[in-house]
Write a structure and sequence with these properties.
The structure holds 2 protein chains of 2 kinds.
Chain A: E1 17-30, E2 33-46, E3 50-54, H1 61-68, E4 76-81, E5 84-85, H2 91-101, E6 102-105, H3 117-127, H4 133-143, H5 159-171, E7 177-181, H6 189-206, E8 209-213, H7 217-221, E9 225-230, E10 233-234
Parallel strand pairs in A: 3-8, 3-9, 6-7, 7-8
Antiparallel strand pairs in A: 1-2, 1-4, 4-5, 9-10
Helix pairs in contact in A: 3-4, 3-5, 4-5, 5-6
Chain B: H1 3-17, H2 21-53, E1 60-64, H3 70-78, E2 82-95, E3 98-107, E4 118-120, E5 128-129, E6 138-141, H4 143-149, E7 156-159, E8 162-166, E9 169-172, E10 186-190, H5 194-197, E11 206-213, H6 216-229, E12 235-238, H7 244-292, H8 297-333, H9 349-373, H10 393-411, H11 415-446, H12 452-463, H13 465-499, E13 507-512, H14 517-526, E14 530-531, E15 535-545, E16 548-549, H15 558-565, E17 568-572, E18 580-585, E19 597-601, H16 602-608, E20 615-620, E21 623-635, E22 646-648, E23 659-665, H17 671-680, E24 685-688, H18 690-728, H19 730-742, H20 747-784, H21 794-820, H22 823-828
Parallel strand pairs in B: 3-10, 6-8, 17-22, 19-21
Antiparallel strand pairs in B: 1-11, 1-12, 2-3, 2-7, 2-11, 4-5, 4-9, 6-10, 7-8, 13-23, 13-24, 14-23, 15-16, 15-17, 15-20, 15-23, 18-21, 19-22, 20-21
The chains are: A alpha/beta, B alpha+beta.
């Protein structure tokens, strides 16, 4: 599988802290009262690192991912993403930061059904105002082995192909951090394994920081570091 | 990122994937219904106005006791208007030794500009449209004049200094007047002959009229110019000043049509609200994803708004076209039913109004949920249960309420009716919502002891509580307006039949001498005519109000000048006619007889600005008579029964010399009897209103036609609401159906469940709709249309059965594809 994306890409070599969580907590109000989903988590991830967040269902993995990516706001503590304190930014400010520095891969792919594979990959570039979005998106799509599928709509693609489109979309902006939430959770073992290879290949090639939540032991073992959670705490 | 490009691209892709179908369909049908009704109302209103203008023989009429300046006619010509002149004077016409005081009208080519002259070869015959006006040297006298003079076609009549040959018999002319002011027999001649008669001398009483007609906008502009530039003493009249009978009919038709279009507008709004909810629920994930990928809230909002505006434009264009085609087809199909004139062509105004209304409805009903859509958090990409925060109640419903109020006020700008309609609507919606909640609670009990299908269906109502209530309100409102329209249509039709029966008096007889009164009535009866009551008439002039001489009672409207200055027909009566209603003061009792009291028609009272208790002084036969206003009456002029603006209490006027009047119905072809009557009672004036009745019946035909056509549009709009409502829960239903079938339910069980749910919903909505429609019809009939209300049972049966059947059938059709979809496919997607 061709994992070479952009020949001209110059990967950063300095291993700075790219993502830092300080005493992060998230509480929600439930019918039974206040519920702490993430409990005083502190974490530091350096550039180019790959980190797996693991743990049983309900451990708070996805919530932690949402907090780290700025999709949700913590009750206490703060997150520094690429040097920016997310808690100091409003919703639009966090969105702008995500557009520049963050990529996402989801369990259920989250491709826009109305757009073709190519248009889905173009979307983050266009949102960021990239002038030659079509060319870059086509190259990236070719990079994940889907050059022949550019005009297909998501419903015309298999699960594995959809996830590869999602990965292409996540990498197309060359983000500093890529968050993946159960990226192989909806795929069979063989397809999941190929998607994992693609993800780690790109991670290595692009020197992107990879933060993934997974139940997949094999996938977790390929990460440089594993953060294990239970009952909202990092063990 | 270029917002427009993304919006267009997403819209295009979504269009191809069929995602936009429901909203676009709802909007398109909404606009189609709206513009269809708009075109129809516009054209039929124009036809009604055209027909009403026939009474003036023009769209605009300038009257003066002095010759009219040529500049008016030059200006009219420059404005593209057609014009004609009519000069009327009263003169004695001779046939040998026989003579008769006659109203002579000298007209120019083109007269009448609206309506038509009916002529015949002999007196009292059925008339046929005349071609042009009398040639020079020729006159067309009416039947009464010929009978009085013993003349016929070919006779030679002397008028002033000239002799004329009788060319045709004038049966009717459009501007012959519908009041009893013009009592003398009439004759028309060519204006070119007028000078030769030497009738127009200094001091002679001559009325000059300029007639103008043309495009509506040009007429309006010319009217404004004329009002600003006319000389003192000149009077401008248009259809709003036409006779009270025709004006009443026009008002009534216009009111009903506007009510019907309001119904369609409200149904459209409901459909759009439902479609918008579905649009929003299907776009939550997209907006969350766009935000995750870095889009700002304003960007996502912009994309969505732009898509909606583009949809509105598309729907407005397609809808307007559909609406136009539909009304054109409808009008062509039923053209044969139209009584008289061709319908005027359409104007573009309904397209603009349709588009603006569509945008307003979209803004009121689609914008609030769309604004919510932009507030969905990006977190939804990880947690599907996260939606936008609940909106403020004012933000969610405020725009819709404002738009509805604005639309209602735009269509019904009368404050009283506006109040009734909005209050009624609010109460009805609240009652429906409360009933919906009750049903939802009852559903919990109903599900025990019934089959699994019913339990599933009824449980669905209970579980989707908010949705059920919304649907109940929507279906209920939809069915209610349909029922209301049907009840009002029936009421209107039967009331028109009541008020305008075929044997309505078509001849009025005025100036019956008191001595000949009994003999005259006996003669009428011997000729087989159906007679009505005989009423006294005294001529009198109002001279003072509360002791202050009448000069210019309330300047402004031209019509008032006539009320104050002209001689009035006065009568006395002990009984209040069935077509009269007291709106102020009280009708006299036995104790009031002989007291100086008077009752005024509301038109007369309004133009004079007097109140109950004011004192009026009349000059009757040279003697002043002061009376007190005892009551104000609202008169239904369109009953065509003899009615008077001023009615005295019995015992006041009896000693004054006066005459009597009566009316009678003569079957067609009674010309011989009428000629005999004219001979035997030469002083009696015969007033033929057959043609006027035909005109008014024509108006009512058109109004009834419009009502029926609008009914079709309203039905379509109602079905759209149903479709939108079912579509809004389509996704959930697909999933439920798949789950049930996976658990072993047969397809039939699922279908029965769906039918149970919609039948229950439809029946309850129908029950409440029947209740609302009956109450609404009572208020609208009695307070607004001023008709009699009679309770009808059929709306209840139709509402409940129809509601159940319609909603069940619609629900089944709309959910059929959902039920038929493979469970595996659904659960995998």
């Amino acid at each position: 599988m061709n994992t070479k994306l952009m020949p001209s890409a110059q990967a950063p070599m300095v291993r700075d802290s790219v993502l830092k969580a300080e005493n992060l907590s998230k509480e929600v109000i439930s019918p039974e009262g206040s519920l702490t989903i993430v409990d005083d988590v502190s974490l530091e991830i350096v550039s180019g690192e790959s980190v797996a967040i693991t743990g049983p269902s309900g451990a708070g993995k996805s919530t932690l991912l949402a907090l780290l990516a700025g999709l949700d706001s913590p009750t206490r503590g703060r997150v520094l993403l690429a040097g920016q304190d997310l808690t100091q930014l409003d919703e639009d400010g966090r969105a702008r930061l995500r557009a520049r520095r963050v990529g996402f891969v989801f369990q259920s792919f989250h491709l826009l059904p109305a757009l073709t594979a190519l248009e889905n990959v173009m979307l983050p570039l266009e949102l960021g105002g990239q002038p030659d979005a079509r060319r870059i998106a086509a190259e990236t799509l070719a990079g994940v082995g889907l050059a022949a599928r550019t005009g297909h709509y998501p419903r015309q693609l298999s699960g594995g192909e959809q996830q590869r489109v999602a990965i292409a979309r996540a990498f197309v902006t060359r983000p500093a951090v890529l968050f993946a939430d159960e990226p192989t959770g909806n795929l069979d073992t063989a397809t999941g394994s190929r998607v994992g290879e693609l993800l780690f290949g790109l991670n290595a090639h692009e020197h992107t920081t990879l933060v993934l939540v997974t139940h997949d032991r094999q996938l977790a073992e390929r990460c440089g570091r594993a953060v294990r959670m239970d009952s909202g705490r990092v063990l | 990122m270029n917002l427009v490009r993304l919006a267009l691209r997403m819209l295009g892709r979504e269009w191809r994937s069929g995602e936009l179908g429901v909203l676009l369909l709802a909007l398109t049908i909404a606009v189609a219904a709206l513009t269809g009704v708009g075109f129809l109302v516009d054209r039929i209103s124009a036809a009604v106005a055209l027909q009403a203008s026939e009474v003036l023989a023009a769209d605009l009429r300038l009257g003066s006791p002095q010759p009219l300046s040529d500049s008016y006619f030059q200006h009219a010509r420059a404005a593209g208007l057609a014009s004609a002149r009519s000069t009327t004077l009263v003169s004695v016409v001779f046939n040998g030794e026989a003579s008769q005081l006659t109203s002579v009208a000298a007209v120019t080519a083109g007269y009448p500009l609206r309506g038509r002259l009916l002529v015949a070869g002999e007196a009292f015959a059925r008339g046929a449209p005349a071609e042009g006006i009398p040639a020079t040297g020729e006159v067309w006298p009416d039947s009464r004049l010929l009978a009085a003079l013993g003349a016929h076609v070919g006779s030679e009549l002397s008028i002033g200094a000239t002799a004329f040959r009788v060319g045709r018999v004038l049966i009717s002319k459009p501007d012959q007047g519908s009041t009893f002011a013009e009592l003398a027999p009439s004759l028309i001649m060519n204006a070119a002959d007028l000078a030769a008669t030497q009738l127009v001398q200094p001091g002679s009483r001559v009325s000059y009229a300029g007639l103008f007609a043309g495009e509506r906008s040009a007429v309006e502009a010319f009217k404004a110019w004329l009002v600003a530039n006319k000389r003192p003493g000149e009077r401008v009249r248009d259809i709003t000043d036409a006779s009270p009978q025709v004006r009443n009919a026009v008002d009534r038709a216009g009111r009903f049509l506007s009510l019907a279009s309001l119904v369609s507008v409200l149904l459209c709004a409901i459909a759009v609200a439902m479609a918008a909810r579905r649009y929003v629920s299907r776009h939550l994930d997209t907006v969350a994803l766009l935000k995750t990928l870095g889009a700002s809230r304003s960007f996502t909002l912009g994309v969505t708004l732009l898509q909606l505006v583009l949809l509105a434009i598309l729907a407005a264009a397609v809808g307007a076209l559909l609406g136009f085609v539909a009304q054109e087809w409808l009008l062509r199909t039923i053209r044969g039913l139209l009584a008289l004139t061709e319908l005027p062509g359409p104007t573009l105004a309904p397209v603009g109004v349709g588009f603006l209304t569509a945008l307003a409805v979209l803004a009121g009903f689609a914008l609030p949920p769309v604004l919510q859509l932009a507030r969905v958090p990006a977190l939804r990409v990880l947690r599907r249960d996260v939606g936008p925060p609940p909106p403020l109640v004012t933000l969610a419903f405020g725009p819709a309420v404002l738009v509805v109020l604005a639309l209602v006020y735009w269509i019904v700008p009368e404050p009283r009716l506006f109040g009734y309609l909005t209050a009624g609507l609010t109460v009805f919606v609240l009652v429906l919502a409360a009933a919906g909640l009750l049903l939802v609670q009852l559903a919990g009990r109903l599900r025990h002891g019934v089959g699994v299908a019913w339990r599933f269906g009824v449980a669905n109502l209970s579980r989707r509580r908010a949705e059920s209530v919304v649907q109940l309100v929507a279906f209920g409102t939809g069915i209610m307006v349909l029922l209301l329209l049907a009840i009002l249509r029936t009421d209107l039709n039967s009331d028109w039949q009541r008020t305008l029966p075929q044997d309505l008096p078509n001849y009025f007889f005025i100036n019956i001498p008191p001595a000949a009164r009994d003999e005259f009535v006996q003669f009428l009866q011997s000729q087989g005519a159906r007679t009505t009551k005989v009423l006294p008439i005294i001529r009198g002039r109002l001279t003072a109000i509360n002791g202050k001489p009448v000069e210019d009672p309330k300047s402004g409207r031209a019509a008032e000048e006539g009320f104050a200055t002209r001689e009035q027909n006065l009568t006395w009566s002990a009984d209040l006619g069935a077509d009269n209603r007291i709106v102020a003061g009280h009708w006299w009792t036995a104790a009031d007889m002989g007291k100086p009291l008077v009752s005024l028609a509301s038109e007369f009272q309004e133009s004079l600005g007097v109140q109950v208790g004011d004192h009026l002084t009349f000059d009757i036969g040279g003697e002043p008579l002061e009376v007190t206003v005892a009551s104000i009456r609202k008169v239904k002029w369109d009953t065509f029964q003899p009615n008077f603006f001023i009615v005295f209490v019995p015992g006041v006027l009896e000693k004054v010399a006066g005459t009597y009047m009566t009316s009678a119905y003569f079957t067609p072809g009674a010309g011989h009897s009428l000629a005999q009557l004219a001979h035997r009672f030469p002083s009696v004036s015969i007033f033929d209103i057959d043609e006027l009745l035909t005109q008014v019946r024509g108006l009512l035909d058109k109004a009834a036609l419009a009502v029926q056509s609008v009914f079709v549009f309203t039905l379509l709009a109602g079905l759209t609401v149903l479709l939108a409502a079912v579509q809004s829960s389509r996704d959930e239903r697909r999933y439920e159906s798949a789950m049930l079938r996976t658990l072993g339910a047969s397809r039939a069980t699922v279908v029965q469940g769906v039918l149970a749910e919609f039948t229950t919903l439809g029946a309850l909505a129908g029950l409440l709709a029947a209740l609302g429609a009956s109450v609404g019809a009572y208020f609208l009939t009695t307070r607004w249309l001023e008709l009699r209300y009679s309770f009808q049972g059929w709306p209840w049966a139709e509402g409940i059965l129809g509601g159940a059947l319609l909603v069940a059938a619609g629900g089944w059709i709309a959910t059929r594809t959902v039920i038929n979809q493979s469970p595996l496919k659904t659960l995998r997607s």
